[in-house]
Amino acid sequence: MSRWQPSVFLATGFGVGFVPWAPGTAGSILGLFLWWEADRAGPLFYGVFLLAAFFVGIVASGRAARVLGIQDPPMVVWDEVVGMGVTLVSAPHTLLPFLVGFVLFRFFDIKKPYPIARLERLPGGFGIMLDDVWAGVYAALILQGGLWIVTRFPL
User: Which residue range is the domain that position 60 belongs to?
Assistant: First the structure.
């Protein structure tokens, strides 16, 4: 079956994207766990892993879309995994910032403010990946801004 082809298996977050309910949320949860562990390995590992995950994701997502016959298949969730990585790139390694980052990322991924919806229309794996990376950028900016405010003006 096509779901076991390597590109489909990776693009679907090792099969997580095939859950019948909210596959994007499931992929984001997978991202939380992966980036929690990557963050423990240190910033150099995190950055290299994030870049590799992005570029491999472009190829795997594009191939998976062709195999599945859908331009942006909902079961392809590697873009959510990478978007979570962007969101959490410089978040403190504690539970609350990671959970807030998750909520912020899901908000921007679902609402798709400008230019996210336009990026989603780019062809192939590039469009699949880039809209979630941009949602991660928005979420990271809000998360970092909130952390800056909390540390400068504690309650």
Answer: 2-95+104-152
